[in-house]
Amino acid sequence: MNTLLAAHAVSTSYTLRGRRVDVLTDVDLAVAPDCVTALVGHSGSGKSTLLHVLGLLTAPDSGRVELEGRDTTGLSDDALADLRRRRIGFVFQSFNLLPQHTALTNVALAYAGRRRAGEARARALLERVGLGDRCEHRPGELSGGEQQRVALARALVNEPPLLLADEPTGNLDAGSEAVLLELFRELADEGHGVLVVTHDQAVADAADVVHRLDGGRPAVADRGRSRAGSRGRGRS
To answer: What angle do CA 4, 207, 147 make, to 5 degrees?
Structure first.
């Protein structure tokens, strides 16, 4: 199985009232292209912290993160920012849309190239996620599910191979959740690597590979769903 993103013996901690608190301890995790990977665990297990490390937003205390085979240890802030912009798409539970701008502008502003190309790319992505008729609506005029699909379009505007999603269905109803999970599946089938942090068992059940954290340590991983015609996807 090819690896798009890999964590090797990642550990991180913080100091509270003079005491060291370990958040992650020797975590290994891999995300493959063509695959939806779920990261699950109880609240406080370190899921979101690990996602920030994997997304190159926070450096681990020890261990390393490799993106497309490249060790990111020691890269400058500018180099890390460029990797995040061009190679990683982020989707968050709270959407993080700019309320004063339209859906189209929210997506286009994230584009790394020329403005006109960004607007065309944004419009095509909004069409893809079923919001072609909502391009000129502001976030406050959209449902939660629609806002999350705008956020997904924004995450994809620079055509990143990797998508990281932190509790993306936490604020959605069952119907909107199903739509979003189907979009994740389509992206994986097109070759993207998708990593979803979730406490929702339905989301985990839809994944190809499931990793579990328990107290910041890797627990026994589950097999993802069994899929006929899965083209030999690996399971952990």
So the answer is: 90
